[in-house]
Design a protein that fits this description.
- The chain has 649 residues and is an alpha/beta fold.
- It is 44% helix and 17% strand.
- The protein has a seven-stranded mixed β-sheet with strand order 4-14-13-12-16-17-15, with helices on both faces.
- Helix 14 runs antiparallel to helix 17.
- The radius of gyration is 35 Å and the shape is globular.
Length: 649
């Protein structure tokens, strides 16, 4: 029965029962349905079931609706109908009876005019009226059943509406808590610059560790020979080899393999973990092809990218401060990670030297600098997040060694541990932090990195499922599992631009077994993804601008005038795709960016770029965000070349 095709009726229907009641009432068939009988005599007990004041209101509402129906037709009267349904499910049933009767008129092909109906022994009968043709209004059992079905439909729609209303309230509350206006972002920028300065002055003076890396010279394109790299940055690690040909040849050829780390080793012992890495490295070296060759007198040297907090004591030595990203190899904390891997290689009978220990962000910086001398900052936005930059050596007050000849030092910020009262912390962040392996630490990373964004979305959906039952009852068991929603799936849902959001439905079904979601519920899911993504991206932008401010390259002192400027983005493919973000003072500053979150999550990247422009204004002219693919891998090999024992001329 297509209610949407209901005809316009120039009639006014009024219900009135043939009883001594002060108002209209339901026909006797509704009483019969309530008792499980049809066709029985009317009974005064029917009126005991419904309060007279309710019936008065019901009749008034229904009269108003039928009047509107006759004057405007069903489509124009729909808002009034929905308002009645919202006031009471039973009033919705009352209205559905009218609608079904009128549809029966349309089916019969005759439209009677009448003013009153009575509840008789065999159903509804007219008290008066002019009827043309056979009377179509006898409502027997099947008519009563049809009305009952309509009542169920109305009840279900009302329930869905209530669920969506509750879910929207939860969404609105979360959006308000995550709000990042420009004023708040500027406060985050200032806090980042202040914490950076404090971290350079003394150990423990800031949440930012601001670790000197002992890297005082970056690759410049003159490097030659064969070099290896090991990149340990998350649940997978990579081994890589690269043949360098100097300024003329640059990168002649490179190969790499990616290896998954067994979950038990992420929680095992130091010897087990580093022996596994050494075994895979030696196996990779054994398959070295003829296109890769060592120069005379050259030994195999390795750049070791280790993407965890390390206190370096030399360019190729450093002790682990703590694990992140799900690792918890306790006996490795405080150990020299270079020595641990070197011992594993030697146990395999190979002679290879680890020439440089670098953070993945430092590797990204080195990889970017190899191609572009204007690179000053390296940022990782992937499973985890971090940043490093080139600082004046004299500004590193806690540095006890000699000032390098270059006068510069690469600083590993460990910015994932940044914290400020200006960050928009919500109940989601609190619960995620409390249940993490490192509660109270790395709050910034838990707001902006790929490992946590998907779980932030999941936690909001859990609350909606519990309080609004948007996915039915009981709550899907897997939805309660931490990190069951990965950020790539979140990105797929966020980027779904189909009219019915079928990608959202597919992800919910595949990941959680949730089926038959309405388009309205899917829109709410997308809105949650958008809120989490936008907050993370804008905070990452504030972090970058904070670094620019610290090194005096944010354009804030450019003629004392800041103006707004539009933002343009070029294609994002290859090593040198640039996103111009200009500023008006002196030179050009390039930010080398790596990580799957930035590269593949388009809306995250766009939100971040927009926020950078908002913050820099006219100062956005000469700052460039440059995608440096695989910087953490090839960057380590390049640093091994620039710090090799045997330098090939």
């Amino acid at each position: 029965m297509d209610i949407g095709r209901f005809p316009k009726l120039p009639v006014r229907i009024r219900w009135q029962a043939d009883h001594q009641a002060p108002c209209s009432a339901f026909p006797s068939c509704w009483q019969d349905i309530g008792r499980g009988q049809t066709g029985s005599d009317d009974s005064p007990r029917f009126y005991k079931k419904w309060k007279l004041d309710w019936m008065d209101r019901g009749c008034c509402w229904m009269d108003e609706y039928i009047s509107c129906l006759g004057a405007r037709g069903f489509e124009m009267s729909r808002p009034l109908l929905m308002s009645f349904i919202a006031k009471s499910v039973c009033v919705g049933v009352h209205v559905c009876v009218c609608v079904l009767l009128c549809l029966e008129v349309k089916r019969a092909g005759s439209i009677p005019t009448f003013t009153r109906l009575r509840a008789g022994r065999k159903g509804l009968e007219p008290i008066d009226g002019n009827v043309s043709g056979a009377w179509p209004w006898r409502m027997r059992s099947r008519r009563a059943a049809a009305c009952a079905a309509a009542a169920v439909i109305v009840s279900r729609r009302l329930k869905v509406r209530s669920q969506k209303c509750t879910a929207r309230k939860i969404l609105l509350e979360f959006q308000e808590a995550c709000y990042t206006p420009l004023a708040r972002l500027r406060q985050v920028v200032d806090a980042m610059a202040v914490e950076m300065h404090a971290g350079l002055v003394s150990e423990g003076g800031s949440k930012l560790k601001m670790l000197p890396t002992y890297i005082d010279r970056l690759p410049d394109g003159h490097e030659r020979g064969l070099y290896y790299a090991v990149d340990l940055g998350g649940t997978n690690f990579r081994v890589l080899r690269v043949q360098l040909g100097g300024l003329e040849g640059r990168v002649i050829k490179q190969e790499y393999e990616e290896v998954a780390i067994p979950p038990e080793l992420m929680l095992g012992t130091s010897e087990q973990l580093f022996d596994f890495i050494a075994k895979e490295l030696v196996s990779f070296v054994a398959r070295e092809g003829q296109d890769f060759r060592l120069h005379a007198g050259q030994n195999r040297e390795i750049g070791f990218t280790f993407s965890f907090p390390v206190k370096q004591t030399a360019v190729n030595s450093g002790t682990l401060l703590q694990w992140t990203k799900g690792f918890k190899v306790n006996d490795a904390v405080g150990e020299d990670v270079v020595a641990a891997l070197q011992r594993g290689i030697e146990r395999r009978g190979y002679k290879m030297r680890i020439a440089a220990l670098v953070n993945d962000t430092v590797g990204t910086l080195a990889g970017g600098r190899y191609w572009n001398n204007d690179v000053m900052i390296g940022v990782i936005l992937g499973t985890g997040t971090n940043a490093c930059y080139v600082e004046r050596a004299e500004a590193v007050s806690k540095w006890a060694g000699d000032i390098p000849k270059s006068g510069e030092m690469v600083i590993n910020m460990e910015w994932g541990n940044f914290w400020s009262s200006h960050l928009p912390r919500t109940y989601v962040d609190e619960s995620l932090d409390n249940e993490s392996l490192n509660p109270g630490e790395y709050g910034f990373e838990k707001m902006i990195s790929g490992m946590y964004l998907g779980d932030c979305v999941r936690r909001v959906l859990v609350r909606m499922a519990q309080e609004a039952c948007i996915f039915g009852t009981p709550v899907p068991h897997k939805l309660l599992e931490a990190f069951s929603l990965m950020t790539p799936d979140m990105s797929k849902m966020h980027h779904d631009d189909s009219s019915d959001l079928k990608v959202v439905a597919e992800v919910l079904k595949r990941v959680y077994g949730i089926q038959n979601t309405t388009v309205g519920i899917r829109k709410i899911v997308v809105a949650v993804c958008d809120t989490v993504c936008q907050r993370g991206a804008r905070l990452a932008a504030a972090g970058i601008v904070g670094i620019l401010k610290k090194i005096g390259r944010d354009g804030s002192a450019a003629n004392g005038v800041i103006k707004r400027n539009t933002f343009e983005q070029s294609d994002m493919n290859g090593f040198h795709d640039e996103v111009p973000v200009h500023y008006t003072s002196g030179g050009r500053t390039v930010v080398a960016m790596d990580g799957g979150l930035y590269e593949h999550y388009t809306k995250f990247r766009n939100y971040m770029q927009e926020a950078v422009v908002e913050l820099l204004g006219e100062g956005s002219k000469n700052v460039v965000i440059e995608l440096s693919k695989d910087g953490s891998g090839i960057g380590a090999a390049l640093l091994a070349a620039s710090h090799a024992e045997y330098v090939i001329s």
